[in-house]
Amino acid sequence: IQSTGTVAARDMQAQLLDSMDIERERGITIKAQTVRIDYKAQDGQTYVLNLIDTPGHVDFAYEVSRSMRAVEGSLLVVDASQGVEAQTLANVYQAIDAGHEIVPVLNKIDLPAAEPDRVIEQIEDVIGIEAHDAIRISAKTGLGIEGVLEAIVTRLPPPKGDPDAPLKAMLVDSWYDAYLGVVVLVRIIDGKLRKGDRIRMMSTNALYPVERIGVFRPGMTPVDELGPGEIGFLTASIKQVRDTRVGDTITTERKGVTEALPGFKPAQPVVFCGLFPVDASDFENLREAIEKLQLNDASFSSEMETSAALGFGFRCGFLGLLHLEVIRDRLEREYDLDLITTAP
């Protein structure tokens, strides 16, 4: 983002795409974030790149799998001192399943402990992808970043899609914005999406007029239309986030497509615990808060539960202990609740 000048120098900050407080404190990514940059390549042409920054932890594998479906290729970033970790494997296999072209990148080669040759061998042995031409970079000093951008242009395939076909778009994510209402992140597969179109959600058959569309250059930037391969957002007087199912297909009311895209496989929770409000009168607020979080994170499940000691609450399922901590922190912060958590 810095080397292509997408964000003005005065607005640059560390962890630019990690916008939640909890992400900054822990130094991790939780929600996948998209950004669109223009890159003038060595062949003299300017390419538009749609990037998604995904979490690395296995607990947020669901975020990763959604993002994989929205793009054509992946950059596999491996720490040149640590080497391949367990979660590296989990995420790589998802990319291979999604049919991605994968470009290996070795980061932190400026560290004295870096052993790029050993890590390249390790990538080839453990994961089984060619890595002798892995790009060696240091994200901290900016070394080799140009090589990564060139590799995206030359080694990853461009999106296929027919701009004249009926509109077919995939709903990648949705969230609620206090000013704009429900904001929907979409990836256009075929056709064009324009402001003023009437769109249909294929899973619910609901119709909506498109009010505004745009792209993220980390901040929201309005555009007039989105074509095949582009990732952008739309707002259309949608009242509730629950009307937008992640993985749904969006098409136009007239001359739309009839066949939906294959959706996402729901994730199976493995860690369970009870969440109870400290004050029993907060139960309704807790129910609303959990519903809102579930709409954005389908890997988190809940059902009502009562206990003689703690009263009414919810039994919730998570993908891991980190996922549990993060959801609990978000409930306490974003929705201002006091919670009791039972042992997982």
CATH architecture of the largest domain: 3-Layer(aba) Sandwich
Distance between the termini: 40 Å
CATH homologous superfamily title of the largest domain: P-loop containing nucleotide triphosphate hydrolases
The neighbouring-strand order within the major sheet is 10-9-15-6-7-14-11-12
The stretches of 5 or more residues where confidence is low (pLDDT under 50) are none
Number of helices: 7
Form type: globular
**Structural class estimated from helices and strands:** alpha+beta
Strand content range = 25-35%
Number of self-contained structural domains: 3
- Largest sheet data: 8 strands, antiparallel
Whole-number mean pLDDT: 82
State the helicity in percent bands: 10-25%
Count of strand segments: 19
CATH structural class of the largest domain: Alpha Beta
**Helices and strands, in N-to-C order?**
HEEHEHEHEHEEEEEEEEEEEHEEHE
Question: Which fold name corresponds to the CATH topology of the largest domain?
Answer: Rossmann fold
Q: What is the C-alpha radius of gyration, as a whole number of Å?
A: 21 Å
Quick recap of the structure?
This protein has 344 residues and is α+β, with helices and mostly antiparallel strands. It contains seven helices and 19 strands. Helix content is 23%, strand content 31%.
